[in-house]
Specification:
3% strand, 421 residues, mainly alpha
Amino acid sequence: MFFESFAESLSFFLWSTFILSVILGVIVNKTNFCTMGAVSDMVNMSDYGRFRAWLLAIAVATIGVSVFEYLGLADVTNSFPPYRDTSLIYIENILGGILFGIGMTFASGCGNKTLIRIGGGNIKSIMVFIIIAIIAYYMTNPFPDSDKTLYSVLFYDWVSPLAVSLDSNQDIGALLGGAENTQMMRLVAGLVVATGMLFYVFKSADFRSNKDNILAGLAIGLIILTAWYTSSNMGVIADDSQYSLSDYYEEWDMLAEDDEGKPATGRTLNSQSFTFINPIGQSYGYAKESFNPALLTFGLMSVFGVILGSLLWSLISKSFRIEWFADFKDFLNHFVGGVLMGFGGVLALGCTIGQGITGMSTLALGSILTFISIIFGSALTMKIQYYKIVYEDEASFFKAFITALVDMKLLPASMRKLDDV
């Protein structure tokens, strides 16, 4: 998809992203696809239906990415964010994932679900959105009149030295295939992992009979894949040569007559697919800079599109309703949840969609660590909340915490502090 001008190519890129995002918002709202809900169903009801829908989305996206990458139709290695970077920031993946999992539990949903709930009339989620936006923005952008960010002040000095430098990209295919067989091993690894997921997903008769879960998994996986394909194949024809959007940006002074229409940054023009915490942060910067069109990105268009798609389905299905905080505790939970998701989503380079599906489709180790950590953080929080509710004043946080770890088989049964209920 090459255009005669950068402006035409960028416009097509942004509008195609917006359309995909509207569809994503409709599908997620219609099918009640919710990653936090999936964890809640597993922990509280031993129902794995929505978790299988999540895995189905990962499997579909992974198969597509593996085949497209092998055929040269997609580039997920030089992506934004850099899922396959040669530096494995495992501490940030794990810590960020756990913080995000705890946060999404307190806030009643992940970043994507926050957008869906806003489209459905939930005012609580608007507050969560604002908190995430401010924290995510200042995690990567300096404070006013300063060169310090939240990340540099709170995390850089102690997490940066712990990163592991690898000799190759951090995805499974590159690690197993080496320099000579990377391309083939990425295909093989993707197909093997995805096939295993599909076997687990469809061995459940209950899942096979649930049309909404199947629709959610298939549609979301295909939307993630379509975004990878589109963002990998946008370009400009200039001086009888073809340039990707990011390459054109790098050669702007040589190729463009002036700076009109030049984006504020080039890294957001790299290949990418859906993620929501960093883009929510971008929305704060966009508003802060008086809606400067040079700041429009894939991420911003995805945020706007998902909210609109959810709103449209809420109106069509007549499910739109205004919802406010039940009490101060409800307000505090959502506030804390927004804070933790803002920090965690940026630290881990993504959310349950950004790392949990988009990143997972690249089979990057960091994405796998984040995926597991988010589920762990959310499940542990739910267990603790459950015991605190059942035992009320009798259960201290410590007792509920230890018992939750016993339930999750991370501590021996002899350490149980509260009776199972």
